[in-house]
Amino acid sequence: MNYLLKPIMALVFFLSLSNAKEFVIDNTHSNIGFSVKHMMISNVKGNFNAYTADIDFDAEKKIFNKLSAKIDATSVDTGIAKRDDHLRSSDFFDVTKFKTVDFVMTSMQEGKVYGKITIHGITKDIVLVSTIHGVIKDFQGHQRVGFSLEGKLNRKDFGLTWNKILEGGGLTVDDTINLAIEVEAIEL
């Protein structure tokens, strides 16, 4: 009887992955965004313009079997060239040494994506709330999935400690970074 157990388990495993498909990110319909409180009174928003992702998505179960991303830190864009140059400097991303921000999912449970994020050469755990917006066929017959990921991180955890104290108290740049990621991906 034990000689049947391994083939049956292999078949169950294969069938559980049969709905999983590889997707490629559609950069023209996606955004890797962030915001941070500035001078304690407003939020500065920005994004990264260059990134790639490996996505293995099960459309039937609406779960990721694999999700990883590589973000080009030099592509940071807040709409102000002088601020973007400062963000690329050794005060923040230090892009001459650390060219990418990397994310690798470790698991997904109940609408949360758990993973490891590496910024400035330092890797930490992160939890992102995932919302699957839908799966459709496009005009060319390709399957597409739309989803968002939201989370927070403390920039000091990654050695991004630059700041200035304001005259009336408080700091120029808050420690908490809010992440807002919108993705549309196409099945390969």
From TrEMBL:
Transmembrane segments: none annotated. SUPFAM superfamilies: YceI-like. InterPro entries: Lipid/polyisoprenoid-bd_YceI, TTHA0802/YceI-like_sf. It holds the Pfam family YceI. It comes from the Bacteria. This is Polyisoprenoid-binding protein. It comes from Sulfurospirillum diekertiae.
